[in-house]
Amino acid sequence: QVQLVESGGGLVQAGGSLRLSCGASGPTFSHYVMGWFRQAPGKERELVAAISWSGTSTLHADSVKGRSTISRDNAKNTVYLQMNSLKLEDTAVYYCAAYRDTTRLLRRSASSYDYWGQGTQVTVSS
């Protein structure tokens, strides 16, 4: 069982930056693929970025490519999402998610992820 807790959300002006963190419980954090999803009001939950267990493989949604970086520190059981040049459309609740996998395969579908955090609100203002 993995428990995930996000932090770092808040209110930021358009063009600004934010770093989200997700702390995970459990001794086998390094066995899990980690992902960041977001959900805006009235929209479906979408993948923002994902990272393999080793950190050597990552993917980012086209909507944030070039503006975001996902990383992880297995020694600290933490995954990060750095977002720069924030836009109004980045406003959403951001969720950390995980599924167990020690290959380099990264899944995009929310249904593939078994564990979820409670979410953290990110609001981008003009």
Structure explained in plain terms:
- With 126 residues, the chain is mostly beta strands.
- The protein is 0% helix and 48% strand.
- The protein has no helices and 11 strands.
- Strands 2, 4, 5, 6, 9, 10 and 11 form a 7-stranded mixed β-sheet that branches.
- β4 and β5 form a beta hairpin.
- It is globular.
Secondary structure layout plus pairing:
Blueprint: E1 4-7, E2 10-13, E3 18-24, E4 32-39, E5 46-51, E6 58-60, E7 68-73, E8 78-83, E9 92-100, E10 115-116, E11 120-125
Parallel strand pairs: 2-11
Antiparallel strand pairs: 1-3, 3-8, 4-5, 4-9, 5-6, 7-8, 9-10, 9-11
Overall outline: globular
Mean pLDDT: 95
CA-CA gap between termini:
40 Å
Q: What is the N-to-C succession of helices and strands?
A: EEEEEEEEEEE
Whole-angstrom Rg: 13 Å
The poorly predicted ranges are: none
Strand count: 11
Largest sheet, in brief, is:
7 strands, mixed
Helix content: under 10%
- Strand composition percent: over 45%
Oligomer: single chain
Count of alpha/pi helices: 0
Give the structural class.
mainly beta
List keywords for this structure.
48% strand, 0% helix, 126 residues, single chain, globular, seven-stranded mixed β-sheet, mainly beta
In short:
With 126 residues, the protein is mainly beta.
